[in-house]
Design a protein that fits this description.
The protein is an all-alpha fold. The protein has a domain of 86 residues. It is 81% helix and 0% strand. α1 packs antiparallel against α2, α1 packs antiparallel against α4 and α3 packs antiparallel against α4. It is rod-shaped. 17% of the residues are buried. Keywords: Plasmid.
Length: 123
């Protein structure tokens, strides 16, 4: 029984590997791109939330929900929830929104809000 030459084995293995890479590389690349997009969307939300908290720190008597930054943040959440198919990102942004509203109701201090935003950023 002959199993073939070493060259034919190497060629067969190489062709198999090339086929596997050709089949799965686009899937892996798409997943990486999607993950980067989700991270970017969350970073934008985090940056906006920090700006709103900083604004609240400078003007403690002003309601967050009445600021222009909050209105833009709310529009951003709406837009992301419409165009984005990743529920995790939308959930994180909604939690940030609830946190900001809680800050208005004095449920959190400024430092607690910043800490919670950092926690949400890591998700």
């Amino acid at each position: 029984m002959e199993i073939g030459s070493l060259a034919s084995w190497v060629e067969g293995i190489s062709e198999s590997l090339a086929l596997i890479v050709a089949l799965f590389l686009p899937i892996v690349t798409e997943k990486q791109n999607s993950k980067q997009t989700q991270q970017r969307l969350q970073r934008i939300g985090v940056r906006s939330a920090y700006q709103i908290v900083e604004e609240k720190q400078k003007h403690p008597d002003q309601l967050i929900t009445e600021t222009e930054n909050y209105k833009e943040f709310n529009q951003y959440i709406t837009t992301v929830s419409i165009i984005n198919d990743d529920q995790q990102t939308v959930t994180v942004l909604m939690e940030m929104n609830e946190l900001l509203q809680g800050l208005d109701r004095d449920a959190y201090t400024i430092e607690e809000a910043k800490s919670k935003i950092k926690e949400l950023e890591k998700e």
